[in-house]
Design brief:
The protein has about 210 residues and is α/β, with parallel strands linked by helices. It is about 45% helix and about 20% strand. α3 runs parallel beside α4 and α6 runs parallel beside α7. The termini are far apart. One of its GO terms (biological process) is methylation. InterPro entries: Cation-dep_OMT, SAM-dependent_MTases_sf, SAM_O-MeTrfase.
Length: about 210
C-alpha cells in the first residue's frame, strides 16, 4: 500500500541492520515470518517512551524484533521480560538481543505463557507496559492477566487485531476471528480500561489501565 510504504520510508529510519536481519534470520531457520512491521515497532517504541515505562512484559518474542524496539526505549534501569513458548525461537531472539547490545535489559522466559503469567502473579510482579503478540485464542486471558499484573496507568498493547480482515467478516465463524471479536468487545466494555484500536499494521490495540479513584 502506498501510504504504508511512505510511512516506513519516512518514519522508521531507526530500523537498523540488527532489526532488518531478523527477518532474514527467521526465513533461514524456517521460522514463521510474523514479526510486527517496522511502523508497529516504531509505535511500540514511542508508546514505551511516552508512558515513561520502565518494566515491560511481552507475550510472544519470536525473533526478538519487537523486543528490541521496546528495550531501546527504556531508561537505563528499565527491563523487558519476554515470554516465548519455543526454546528455538528464544535462542534466536537471545542472539539478536545480544547483537543489539541489550542483553542486560531483556529476560526471556521459555514455556507456556499462561503458566509464566501465573508465576509472575504469584511473585507479585507489576509492569508499566505490555505487548501481546502470541496465540490469538488466549488473547482474552492474556488481557485479564495483564490487567492484574499492571501498575495504575499502565499501557497494554496487542497486535493482529484485524487478522488480515477476517475479523470483519461476520460469516467467518472460525475460532480465531470469533475470539478476536470477543477480545474487541472485552477491551471496549471493560470499565478498568480506556481502549482504542489503531489501523496500523494488522491492527494495534492500545489500552490504558485506569488509576483507582
Amino acid at each position: 500500500m502506498q501510504e504504508r510504504q511512505y510511512i516506513r520510508e519516512q518514519f522508521t529510519r531507526e530500523e537498523d541492520e540488527v532489526l532488518k536481519s531478523i527477518g532474514t534470520g527467521l526465513e533461514k531457520h524456517g521460522f514463521p515470518q510474523i514479526s510486527v512491521p517496522p511502523e508497529v515497532g516504531k509505535m511500540l517504541h514511542m508508546l514505551v517512551k511516552i508512558s515513561n515505562a520502565s518494566n515491560v512484559l511481552e507475550i510472544g518474542a519470536l525473533g526478538g524484533y519487537s523486543t528490541i524496539w521496546m528495550a531501546r526505549a527504556l531508561p537505563e534501569h528499565g527491563k523487558v521480560i519476554s515470554l516465548e513458548l519455543k526454546e528455538e525461537h528464544a535462542q534466536f531472539a537471545r542472539k539478536n538481543i545480544a547483537k543489539a547490545g541489550l542483553g542486560d535489559r531483556v529476560e526471556l522466559i521459555v514455556g507456556d505463557a499462561m503458566e509464566s503469567l501465573n508465576q509472575l502473579e504469584k511473585e507479585q510482579k507489576r509492569f508499566d507496559f505490555f505487548f501481546i503478540d502470541a496465540d490469538k485464542l488466549n488473547y482474552p486471558n492474556y488481557l485479564e492477566k495483564a490487567i492484574r499484573l499492571s501498575n495504575p496507568g499502565a499501557v497494554i498493547t496487542a497486535d493482529n487485531l484485524f487478522l488480515r480482515g477476517r475479523v470483519f467478516d461476520e460469516n467467518n465463524q472460525a475460532p480465531s476471528p470469533v475470539t478476536m471479536r470477543r477480545f474487541h468487545q472485552q477491551m471496549a466494555t471493560d470499565d478498568r480500561l480506556e481502549s482504542l484500536i489503531l489501523p496500523l499494521g494488522d491492527g494495534l490495540a492500545v489500552c490504558r489501565v485506569k488509576e483507582p479513584r
